[in-house]
Amino acid sequence: MTGSTGSALPTPTTAPGRDGLDAILARPGKALIALDFDGTLAPIVADPEQARAHPEALTALAALAPKVAAVAVITGRPAEVAVRNGGFADAPGLEHLVVLGHYGAERWDARSGEVSAPAPHPGVAAARTELPELLDRLGASQGTWIEEKGRAVAVHTRRAADPQAALDSLREPLAGLAHRHGLIVEPGRMVLELRPPGMDKGVALTGFAREIGAGSVLFAGDDLGDLPAYSAVDKLRADGTPGLLVCSGSAEVTELRERADLVVDGPEGVVRLLGTLAARLG
Ligand SMILES: O=P(O)(O)OC[C@H]1O[C@H](O[C@H]2O[C@H](CO)[C@@H](O)[C@H](O)[C@H]2O)[C@H](O)[C@@H](O)[C@@H]1O
Prior knowledge:
The chain contains nine helices and twelve strands. By secondary structure, it is of the alpha/beta class. The chain has two domains: 15-118 and 199-281, HAD superfamily/HAD-like (Rossmann fold, 3-Layer(aba) Sandwich); 122-195, 2-Layer Sandwich (Alpha-Beta Plaits). Bound molecules: ligand L263DTV3.
């Protein structure tokens, strides 16, 4: 499913994907370009605090944004963290950017510079309190650590000697903890996040596409938390809105590759695609 890269626009490998790209090219002013952050716009690193947008990302986004209906970042990160690590605040050309954080529960608008969000779920505080003792009791692998996310709490294993084994050993106990406090577990790349139910990137993407009256949608992601957005694009397509599913390819996650219309080479490939699309839209 890998499309060609370089200065020519790659050709999606599926018919719906080709229709999606054709629709974006035919009526760019109706196109929504929606992008995940970590692993898609920002290369994966061991310390999430150090994750930054690819050096060419802002240039590509700023070139594309004025030519399409909207550009949105849809991320599991708190919105303000994605804005900070992405360098999105006050970025020239991105005056209308929207960042939907916490899988869409939070929203930052570049126009106002403000974040709107619902009241915190009480289960998050309760789970947070129990989590360190639970990890101790389980003898969690060295390198396992807790990320405080405000509206959620996440357990990372990327720094463990065997990250996948460390992650797998925590799945059941963390599912139990989440369940006791009315939360869900969001699995990701060497991370298990305990977060409130009721929102996902698919709901977020569909809502924003409706809000702006999108006539076509491009969504790019790399991780399991992006699958609901893939399903949302499938549904939009079934309902008559063309869409293009882009996978920011990695060796860690294969599920998106199988459903994507176009697989590119990680954030480098995503940024190249965005830049090429902007150039093509002239
Ligand atoms: O929805 P996303 O924008 O993809 O955010 C998902 C999670 O991203 C972060 O974790 C991931 O990136 C880290 C930095 O590269 C990496 O160390 C970690 O292994 C990845 O899972 C973030 O820390 C999580 O809170 C986000 O939910």
